[in-house]
């Protein structure tokens, strides 16, 4: 079982990389990539950052249920790799096949958010009972 510290590190690494990739694309690749490609990288970096912060938030809010933290953050992490990763690969390579993985990552984000909601609800019910 992964500890909360593991997820704090994962969330922080995702956030760090989102800032670095976004800045590098905006400044270092602006003369190489098209506006369309830069937009793809921007979208990928934004969603990576949103979900990096979601990982950190879930550690804080679901901390009393390690299993919940692990389920939610495993889905968020897989979503980052598939959604943002496929968009980065598409933008940098131009290989459209990578776009097939993007909706799978988006679905994992939705599953993670749904799990977050359900686990938070369960924890709120346990808190009411005690």
From TrEMBL:
Species for this entry: Glaciecola petra
Main location: membrane
Name this protein carries in UniProt: DUF423 domain-containing protein
Database matches in InterPro entries: DUF423
Lineage: Bacteria, Pseudomonadati, Pseudomonadota, Gammaproteobacteria, Alteromonadales
Domain of life according to the entry: Bacteria
Listed Pfam families: DUF423
Keyword tags: Membrane, Transmembrane, Transmembrane helix
UniProt-annotated location(s): Membrane
Its membrane topology: Multi-pass membrane protein
Transmembrane segments: 7-27, 47-64, 71-92, 98-121
Keyword Coiled coil: no
Stated family: Belongs to the UPF0382 family.
């Amino acid at each position: 079982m992964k500890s909360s510290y593991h997820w704090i590190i994962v969330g922080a690494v995702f956030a760090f990389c989102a800032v670095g990739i976004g800045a590098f694309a905006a400044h270092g690749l602006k003369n190489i990539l098209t506006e369309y490609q830069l937009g793809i990288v921007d979208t990928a970096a934004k969603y990576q950052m949103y979900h990096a912060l979601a990982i950190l938030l879930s550690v804080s809010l679901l901390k009393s249920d390690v299993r919940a933290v692990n389920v939610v953050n495993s889905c968020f992490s897989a979503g980052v790799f598939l959604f943002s990763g496929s968009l980065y690969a598409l933008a940098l390579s131009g290989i459209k096949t990578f776009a097939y993985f993007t909706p799978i990552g988006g679905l994992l984000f939705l599953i993670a958010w749904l799990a977050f909601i359900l686990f938070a609800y369960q924890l709120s019910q346990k808190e009411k009972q005690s």
